Amino acid sequence: MGKRVLSAMIKHETNTFSKVATGLDEYRSRALRSGNAIEPIYAGTKSEVAAHFDAARENDWALTCAIAANATSSGKVTEEAWEYLSSAVLTTLDRDGPFDGILLALHGAMVTESTDDGEGTLLAAVRRHVGPDIPICVSLDLHANVTDRMVDNANGLFSFRTYPHVDIYETALRAALVLRDAMDGKNPASMPCPPGAP
After folding, report:
1. pLDDT for residue 90 is more than 90
2. Does the residue 198 lie in any domain?
């Protein structure tokens, strides 16, 4: 039986100078999907989530997509929105786990009304849920603010290398391939970059 992998996308590039709060309506106006509504939107695109689906098919993973959410850059993410987004991941871990690996598409610059490090806070919560041995790999925007908390709670962080971001799919695929190797017990740090990876 294939590995069981949790996938999720939660993105926001927060501008802390903006007074326009980022709530669920702001996510709904750009991207807010969950469960079975995710694949029809993203499959076959050049998105990070599409790379998750493609990697799952290629490696015979049972992929569970918790949420795909993205909002236009604006002010801090509201507590209501943050609770909704993070709970989607944590609830899926509790309801559908255990998982062999976690594959996340994050931005790396999310600030909420309660934390200056949205991604680090999310990764720490996921790590508490899955324990120290389940690999977590994350794709990030080129403009990510990588924190110690993010590094401490992820096995791999992979950022876009281009602006405009034309390597989104490839970056997420790179994260997925390293996740595959980690789940197979290989040491990704000792392996060459996979063919075709940027």
Report:
1. yes
2. no
- At 121-160, the pLDDT tens digits run 999 999 999 999 999 999 999 999 999 999 999 999 999 9
Domain of residue 95: give its range. Answer: 4-190
Q: What is the DSSP track for the chain?
A: -PPEEEEEEEE-BB-TT--S-B-HHHHHTTEEEEGGGSHHHHTTSSSHHHHHHHHHHHHT-EEEEEEEEE--SBSPBPHHHHHHHHHHHHHHHHHH---SEEEEEE-SB--BSS-S-HHHHHHHHHHHHH-TTS-EEEEE-TT----HHHHHH-SEEEE---SS---HHHHHHHHHHHHHHHHTT--GGGSPPPTT--
pLDDT given for residue 186 in this prediction: 83
Q: Classify residue 195: in a domain, yes or no.
A: no
High-pLDDT (> 70) share of the chain, %: 94
CATH value at residue 118: 3.40.50
* Statement: the pTM of the whole predicted model exceeds 0.90: yes
**Domain assignment present for 91:** yes
What confidence category does residue 69 fall into, taking pLDDT thresholds of 50, 70 and 90? very high
- Residue 105 lies inside a defined structural domain of this protein: yes
